[in-house]
Amino acid sequence: MPRLIFLNRFFFPDQSATSQILSDLAFHLAERGFDVHVVTSRQLYESPKARLPAQETVRGVTIHRVFSTRFGRTSLAGRAFDYLSYYAAVASKIIRVASRDDVIIAKTDPPLISVLAMWAARIRGAKLVNWLQDIYPEIAIETGVPLIKGPIGRILSLLRDASLKAAVANVAVGRQMANRLISQGAKSDTIHVIPNWCDDEAIVPVANADNPLRQKWGLQHKFVVGYSGNLGRGHEFNTLLASAERFRGDPDVMFVLIGGGQRFEQLKRLVAEKGLDTIFRFFPYQDRDRLKHSLAVADMHWISLQAGLEDLMFPQQILRHCGRRPANSCGDRRNGRDREPRERI
What we know:
Blueprint: E1 4-7, H1 17-31, E2 36-41, E3 55-58, E4 61-66, H2 76-97, E5 103-106, H3 113-124, E6 127-131, H4 138-142, H5 151-166, E7 169-172, H6 175-183, E8 191-193, H7 212-216, E9 223-230, H8 238-246, E10 253-260, H9 262-273, E11 280-283, H10 291-296, E12 300-301, E13 343-344
Parallel strand pairs: 1-2, 1-5, 2-4, 5-6, 6-7, 7-8, 9-10, 9-12, 10-11
Antiparallel strand pairs: 3-4, 8-13
Helix pairs in contact: 2-3, 3-5
């Protein structure tokens, strides 16, 4: 049986979104008898100084954790060094791990890892699958990341397009993204739309009165506008701030943000500068066993995405606490059957 080798910068026990989605799938496939490997970093998303074991097997998944620098997300230069060191370590590890006919599945953290995966797949005679959560370098270009516009951006786009054409399958999380991949040269018969899923047996509705986090955070009698997840360069928050200004001093309204990211810290500073501290609360990522309660804290969820990025990335926050699932995104467990969670373009 060919091995399935996933590439992503974060994996279990990390709590970030891409880690959780990948961990769900990897453990599920291992339970079904597949030989699953994950090449990842030794870090945690919220703790770049973490040093997880270099190799271990968890629930049947063999985890290969490679070394990379640990500057974190505080600056573009530091993040670039982290990416470059990770690329080098991953390249070395894949060449040692992959064999002919294995399947290398490249996610998109860090960006453009598919280019490296394409190269390794060719050398080892493996098959390449791209599992796209976002599309780089276009996001970096649209959000004004220095040095990416112009010749560098065009070269990176050409390399990325080559990895799309080399893949036996390209997985997009939405139809708009799938159409963008076709426009970049990917063959339509290689594209599958598989929206991200949630565990709708673990994440179920929780009444406000029964939610321990609402009580712990002093939100029992508040109308809560919530956000949960990464707030990065592809998100905007001016709309949220303008709305908050209209509720300045209102004792019945609270804006609660849970998560992290480059713009998360920026928003915290602006809230303080504008004197909106009394109606904003900020919390770090919550452990997965508390996700049911942290998502249910909000009476209304705010989903943010910069205009013009709709085909490049996808808001990962969905109203999971309401017990809803994106169409075709989760297995249907009724009567013990699994519904195929994919759509072909």
